[in-house]
Specification:
The protein contains twelve helices and twelve strands. The chain is an alpha/beta fold and about 350 residues long. The longest helix is centred in the middle third of the chain and has 22 residues. About 35% of the residues are buried.
Length: about 350
C-alpha cells in the first residue's frame, strides 16, 4: 500500500460514524477533516466561512441552478468542488488523514493508500440515539433521520457514480449497532493496520500450522459471537485480518440473532461459495452455518480452491469435509468441537 493512508468514512445519520472516525484519527495520530475544512478553505481564499455554512454536504437545487461550460451558479456546487480540490491537494502532498463524507471514496479513488468505509446502523438504534441527543420525540427523531439520510444520499449521488451506502462501493461496510461505538472503532483500527487474508493468499498458500492457527483464532471469535446468540454469516478470506500471528474476524454487517422459531432466514446474506446452503432459504441458520464457511476457508487457505473442486489432503481434508456437510446436523456441533479437531 505504501506509507500513505487515507481513511474515508461515510455514514448514516445517527450511526456515530463521525464519532468513530474522529476517534480513529486520534488513536492513529492522523489529521481529521470534516466541516473544519470549510474554515481552512475560507482562510486560504479569503472569504467568510459563514457564507457556505448552511450548504455543507447538501445537494444543489436542480431547478434553481445552472451549469455553463463546467461552471455552476449553485453555492452548494462551488463549495463541493472547493472541498474536493482541498482533499486532492492534501493527498497529493503525501499526507495521511481521516476524512468524513465529502464523497472522498470517489474523489480520492486514484490514490493507492485510500481505505473506504461505510458506517451504518439499525434504524431503531439510530432513532433512539437521536431522540436522546436532541431531546426529540420518537416521530420527530424518525423524520430527522430520514431527512438527513436523504440529504446525504442526494449529495453523494450528485457527485459520485457509485450509489451512497451500496457496499460494493466501499472496502468495508460495518453496522455500528452490532459492536457499539468502542467495538466498531477498535475493529476498524485493526482493519486499517492489518492485511486481509485475501491479500496474503495472493502471495501464496498457507501451510497446515499457519492455516490451523488462523482457523483456531476464528473459532475463538465465533464462540464469543455464538454465545451471544448471533451468527456471523459471512466468514471469508476478505473478512479476516492478520496482525502479526493473530487472525481477527471483521465485518459483522451480515450477522444476525438466531431465531429458531422461524423456518428460514428472512434475508439472504453471505458470499456465494462460502455461504452455507441454509443461507439460501433451505432452513434457519445457526452457528453451524459459520462452521460451513470456516471449513471452506480452511480449504482455500491450504489449496486455493473450494473443497468441491480440490479437497485438502489428510486430516485437514477430513475436517473440511465434516464442516461442509449439506446437513447441518452432520457438521461439528459447535466451534469448540471444531477447534479441538484442529
Amino acid at each position: 500500500m505504501g506509507n500513505q493512508i487515507i481513511i474515508s468514512i461515510s455514514r448514516e445519520y445517527g450511526s456515530e460514524g463521525h464519532t468513530i472516525a474522529k476517534q480513529i484519527a486520534k488513536d492513529l495520530g492522523l489529521p481529521f477533516y470534516d466541516r473544519n475544512m470549510l474554515d481552512e478553505i475560507a482562510k486560504e481564499k479569503g472569504f467568510d466561512p459563514a457564507v457556505f455554512a448552511g450548504v455543507d454536504e447538501k445537494p444543489r437545487n436542480k431547478l434553481l441552478s445552472r451549469r455553463v461550460k463546467g461552471y455552476s451558479n449553485a453555492t452548494e456546487d462551488n463549495l463541493a468542488q472547493m472541498q474536493f480540490s482541498y482533499l486532492k491537494d492534501k493527498a497529493d502532498s503525501g499526507e495521511s488523514f481521516v476524512v468524513v463524507g465529502r464523497c472522498a471514496e470517489t474523489v480520492l479513488k486514484e490514490y493507492d493508500g485510500l481505505i473506504t468505509i461505510f458506517v451504518l446502523g439499525d434504524e431503531e438504534t439510530r432513532v433512539k440515539r437521536i431522540e436522546q441527543l436532541h431531546g426529540l420525540s420518537e416521530d420527530e427523531a424518525k423524520r430527522l433521520v430520514k431527512t438527513k439520510d436523504w440529504r446525504r444520499k442526494s449529495y453523494h449521488n450528485c457527485y459520485s457514480r457509485g450509489r451512497w451506502g451500496d457496499s460494493r462501493n466501499y472496502d468495508l461496510s460495518i453496522n455500528s449497532s452490532r459492536l457499539g461505538i468502542e467495538g466498531t472503532t477498535k475493529m476498524l483500527e485493526e482493519y486499517v493496520q492489518g492485511d486481509t487474508l485475501l491479500y496474503l493468499l495472493e502471495g501464496g498458500l498457507l501451510d497446515w500450522e499457519e492455516a490451523r492457527k488462523v482457523a483456531a483464532d476464528i473459532c475463538a471469535a465465533l464462540w464469543v459471537l455464538h454465545s451471544m446468540g448471533a451468527v456471523h454469516r459471512d466468514v471469508k478470506d476478505s473478512n479476516v485480518i492478520l496482525r502479526g500471528s493473530d487472525a481477527v474476524l471483521i465485518d459483522f454487517d451480515a450477522s444476525r440473532l438466531v431465531k429458531p422459531e422461524r423456518p428460514t432466514d428472512t434475508v439472504i446474506l453471505g458470499t456465494t461459495g462460502y455461504a452455507a446452503p441454509e443461507q439460501f432459504g433451505m432452513s434457519q441458520t445457526d452457528g453451524r452455518a459459520d462452521i460451513y464457511s470456516l471449513g471452506v476457508l480452511l480449504n482455500v487457505m491450504l489449496t486455493g480452491q473450494h473443497p468441491s473442486r480440490c479437497l485438502a489432503a489428510g486430516h485437514a481434508g477430513r475436517i473440511v469435509r465434516r464442516c461442509t456437510m449439506m446437513n447441518p446436523d452432520q457438521r461439528f456441533r459447535d466451534v469448540l468441537e471444531l477447534r479441538d479437531a484442529l
